[in-house]
């Protein structure tokens, strides 16, 4: 154990850490942590923007191909504690606004890089932290000033969704048609106060067709099939019963044994069971239910009786809530508790086969607020990445509606942020001014990375972006052919939710300042 793990009292050493503990202090601790954070940033930097590249992650034989920052960092087996802080940045960004995870990670890494330079110039870590927090407040001011005036219409929201999905894995279909599907789904679940019931939108991904077959279902899809082969596979104008439990013999609360002495007694017992099961099935039929969904098991004989009466029954349903939201049915704990006025309705219920899988579609329910995006793809990898892209698009459209509108994309907002922070840096006293200026320089990494990934010279692009802004033209890095152009993102229809920008600034600043403040790492095995 190093001497840092012991203290001296009266000339004799007093050990305060176990022999297996490892301790790193001072410059070594800061350098190690900053290097780890920068490594995480570099791991996802090339995925940023519409021309970002994918990463292949292989673990235990499973392969994931994606350019989604949160997925990449989640799949990587990261052990360094400081690096894990940046992973948490991406996770927080994903949970809060659904997109911008790569932006937050790249910005955090660059903030650490600039902090390392300041530390080398003997700027105190606390001064850097204070300067970064002041600069992040200025950055939020710049974002708020850039928010576009007026309510967002459907075209604006489609632009937001398309910007989110451009460059991500969408199979053989362009981002535009998928963006329209996303906005249609969001519009379907808009509430009277203008908010979005995001929980009423689900994504069901299925291999077996091209991505262009992706469709919006006004209802829900259940990944289960009928419990009996003779049941109907489609029902129009369906009356729907929902049971949260099993449909089998009642279990007695008394632990009792029965002695059967002859065949007549055995037949009587069997007939009694049959009568009970027949009665349970008949109760469903008598209420007028055409379709039955149960969270538990439906006993084979009950299923047979239901099939004879033309009832479509599905068991082992994991999400009864989605069915209830779509059809207006009420949840009954047992068949005996089910009442006629608790039945729901749907325009149609159909069982469709996709390869070896059967899916049950519930469409046009009377309470049909629930919708499902039925995502298709030719391979499992395509479907997985398409599902991630659609989920991100749903989240950013929701964020744009509920959390402060939209701002220009393509790196234009970052140019304004950096300029606003630099303008105010002169008014900051002492060495903290250096940290504020370093923050502005760090923000420049985002348009530089976009330019680099698009095939442009990053320095030339940054100079052109700054020059355009100083001349009164807001410009960004737009992908064009094999390279890119410096042009107006608003004219090109590239918009980002302001909430994504705010969250990226906040989370990146928080992670970077937390790492910079650490000067002692104690690891106990």
TrEMBL record:
**Protein keywords:** ATP-binding, Chaperone, Nucleotide-binding
Family listed: Belongs to the TCP-1 chaperonin family.
Q: Name one GO molecular function term.
A: ATP hydrolysis activity
- What is this protein called in UniProt? Chaperonin Cpn60/TCP-1
Q: Which Pfam families match?
A: Cpn60_TCP1
Kindly list the organism's lineage. Answer: Archaea, Methanobacteriati, Methanobacteriota, Stenosarchaea group, Halobacteria
